[in-house]
Amino acid sequence: MKFTEEKLEQAFIELLDEENISHASGKAMLRDFSEVLIKKDLKNYLLSQYSNEGLTKSEADSIIRELENFPASDLYESNKTIMKKVSDGFLFKREDRSQKDLYIQLIDYSEEDNNTYKIVNQLEIQGFENKRIPDGILYINGIPLVVIEFKSAIREEATIHDAFIQLTVRYKRDIPELFKYNAFCVISDGVNNRAGSFFAPYEFYYSWRRTEGMDNEVDGVDSLYTLIQGMFNRKRIRDIIQNFIYLPDSSKKDLKIVCRYPQYYAAPRLLMKSPYFASPTIVLITDRTDLDDQLSAQFTNAKDFIGDESVISVESRQDLRDLLQGRNSGGVFLTTIHKFTEDTQLLTDRTNVICISDEAHRSQVNLDQKVRITSEGVKKTYGFAKYLHDSLPNATYVGFTGTPIDATLDVFGEVVDAYIMTESVKDGITVKIVYEGRAAKVLLDNSKLKDIEGYYARCAEEGSNEHQIEESKKAMANMSLILGDPDRLKAVAEDFVNHYTKRVSEGATLKGKAMFVCSSRPIAYDSTRRSLPYDRTGQKSKLVKRAPN
Q: What digits encode the pLDDT tens for the residues 269-282?
């Protein structure tokens, strides 16, 4: 199916009607052409929602004026402040100072859903110099939260990238007032349908290709239906606006992130706000220091979003014990799994503790006892995960992994949600993996090769243990001598450069990365050294000194 812009606009309106979102023509609305709020709708909502508290008309007008007074000249900061008011609500000082401050929510997030939804098309907006007419604007209670721009799939010269430019360049220049209130934007030609933050680059606009209950993701025209049924379901759009749009506490650039569909469906659902967990303590665990540092930087800059000021990178197990002692709720603590071998004492037996493990296929699943034969005799130890579970025996465990194994399921339970590699490639998150075998001929020491093969045959018959693992290391050391032979690495590096150069000269599309997979870090390092001296023509580079043999 191919759409003209007019037909696509009408189809979008009809599909939104199925989500109980009514249509209003911008041409029929009586208003000042420079106004982007539907003040009547917002005022009616406020007076109705807070009638029991006796909110007056002048107080409702005051709330509306406060929103209008945020400057469009500082668009990012104004949007950030307004979005916080929209998602979290705010305290409003009453005209009668003897009355308590009133907590105002601009959207009713309760199950009652006492909100007014409108899709408005052809709304003429007078900007500083030019008039602009967005294709569609979704209003909730008179607030323009979503802006939609269409392009025809019939005209080859018109793409959804043009729709992106229309929004983020022309509209931003001419009618920035509209985007003070914007939660996210949609660009569509009916076949390609994407949503993203107004402040995000084009490549961070994504399709919403699955809804609840669907087994598979969809593409093309079908993704128009999943976008609307997914993001524009009345309950879900409120959830996205309230909980799934991230603005950091501070940022050197205009950073605003709107969730993608796998992030929405797979997210541990609003743990800090869950009444079931009674304001839990969250312990976020990684198995590498660099990951811990990265997550610490991100989480400590998201205290507003998380809703807890106690976001702390834990220095030691004793530090974690001190933080948990006497604490009944709250707190987000980031640490590495290795700290759980510092001692094995109980940290807390509370039930409202949630451990979230990253890379939940490695050291996070080793619960079994290990037996090692040493010069002092047989020594029994356990893995990091065993000590973690003993320290927090009543915690709830959540695991994230890109490569789940059986042990992952044994420790963390059944899969809550899966986002597979092929879908990630389709969404443009992961580049397509292309493999071409490039065999380098090497002369093997046959006697060593037979020793290695014989050893692993015995392992298969007897079942491996710690002693055999140590023997395996010795065997692999011999294999490393073969794989790391300087002449072999030189041949591999030259073959790589020649092959890459040929691909470039043939005009191949080389997006993404070229990757070496090596058996060890020293071999990886040596391979890289031997590849670097060559430039894109295959000649020795004048800029890089030739690595010695």
A: 777 777 777 788 99
Domains of the chain plus CATH, in order, are 5-37+116-264 (3.90.1570.50), 268-424 (3.40.50), 446-531 (no CATH)
Residue 156, CA distances (Å) to 6, 93, 280, 495, 501 in order: 16, 55, 53, 42, 34
Amino acid sitting at position 84: K
Contact between 180 and 75 under an 8 Å Cβ cutoff? The reply is yes
Per DSSP, helices labelled H in 418-485 are 421-426, 446-462, 466-483
DSSP bridge partners of 371: 380
Give residues with Cβ within 8 angstroms of 530, minimum separation 6.
489, 490, 492, 493, 547
256/398 Cα distance (integer angstroms): 26
DSSP 540: B
Distance CA 379, CA 286 (A): 27
Helix (H, G, I), strand (E, B) or coil at 377: strand
Q: Using pLDDT thresholds of 50, 70 and 90, give the confidence band for residue 420.
A: confident
pLDDT at 542 over 50: no
> What type of residue is 358?
D
Q: CB neighbours of 470 closer than 8 A, spacing ≥ 6?
A: none
The confidence band for 362, taking pLDDT boundaries of 50, 70 and 90, is low
Token pair listed for 309 = 């000021």
Whether the per-residue pLDDT at 436 is higher than 80: the answer is no
Q: What is the DSSP string of 229-291?
A: HHHSSHHHHHHHHHHSEE--SS-SS---EEPPHHHHHHS-TTGGG-TTTTS-EEEEEESSHHH
Asked if residues 484 and 526 have their Cβ atoms less than 8 Å apart, the reply is yes
Distance CA 540, CA 437 (A): 24
Question: Helices 234-243 & 222-231, crossing angle to 10 degrees?
Answer: 70
**Do residues 465 and 371 make contact, with C-beta atoms less than 8 angstroms apart?**
yes
Structural element, H or E, at residue 525: helix 521-531
